[in-house]
Amino acid sequence: MAIQDILVPDIGNFDSVDVIEVLVKAGDTVAKEDSLITVESDKASMDIPAPFAGVVKEVKMKVGDKASEGSLILTMDVSAAAAPSKTAESKPAVPPAATPVAAVAIPEPSRPAPEPPKTIAPVQKPAPVGESVVVATGKLSHASPSVRKFARELGVNLALVKGSAAKNRILQADVQAYVKEELAKPRTENMGAGVSGFAALPMPVIDFSQFGEIVNKPLSRIKKLSGANLHRNWVTAPHVTQFDEADITELEKFRKEQNEVAKDFKLSPLVFVVKAVAKALEIHPKFNASLSADGQSLILKKYFHIAIAVDTPNGLVVPVIRDVNKKGFKEIAIEMAEISQKAREGKLKSSDMQ
Predict the structure, then answer these.
(1) pTM of the model
(2) Per residue in 96-115, pLDDT tens?
(3) SS3 letters across 54-66
């Protein structure tokens, strides 16, 4: 029997991911596609499958290790029937002294989503009151009553305006120039002096054990990152609430009739909601848009991919149904059921969440 090294395959745009579970041990007999280890990225957990059947000789990874492409997971005795053919292409690896070893390419696993893009530094940096070189503590800004009245009408804090006249006296033209400069900045840069990153007040440290028995359970990587991302989206996305009433009596009647004759799929109300959202975005393209990183343009999207939130034991994940506008109710229903099941089993691929 030949000894084969089982390596971590391509895991997407990640340098490394955490090993959160080792599913086999030395001496175990595994079949092809059986899960060997479970790894976790920022957005999803995934299983690394066995590329062929065999008996585990030695496990090289443990819970808490960092796994990257090419890392050695384990060594395996492979039966002649399960071993790859001589004509099959494989990556040669450096063999041990006693036994010839060949690195075998593993089928691509359910890989995590790529890392989020790096934050783009703003072109201009706002000057908070506490950092402004113009502000002199305990001293009033030099400006005439008429200029002060003009600044009040525009809502301008004269402490942030640099005067161009003698002894830094502020003129009306200085106030106008300051307003023009602020209006020219991207919206995210002038949302309030001194506000950086929408940071909330720090939470007080409370010893909850003083009130009774507690259990300290560490959060998974997904749950740690979900909170920060949800908070960021909450404070940066425009909030719009729209209430409309629609009579769906006929829709419900149609849905139930179709479900009685449908085979291998079920039409849920969410299927129709997803289709309606895609149609609404086609009619109103500005709602299917994003503000560019520099705040200077609107990026209109010609595709209609709708994400649905799925609650899983490992946290909330959001797989995507692509090109909803090109699919019928049956296609959407089948795909929705498939990605929801994959999400709950931790088998989502990178492409499923983009």
Answers:
(1) 0.46
(2) 454 544 555 555 555 454 45
(3) EEEEEECCCCCCE
Lowest-pLDDT choice from 36-50, 125-139, 149-163, 214-228: 125-139
- Domain end among 140, 163, 189: 189
Q: List the domain range (segments joined by +) for residue 52.
A: 2-104
Cβ pair 179, 156 in contact under 8 A: yes
CATH code at 166?
Answer: 4.10.320.10
Q: Give buried/exposed letters for 144-182 (b at 16+ CB in 10 A, else e).
A: eeebbebbeeeebebebbebeeeeeebbeebbeebeeee
Query: What are the DSSP calls for 92-130, one per residue?
Result: E-PPPSSS-EEEEPPPP--PPPPPPPPPPPPSS----GG
Q: Which two tokens stand for residue 107?
A: 């089928």
In a domain, 348, yes or no: yes
How many helices (H) does the chain have, and how many strands (E)? 6, 16
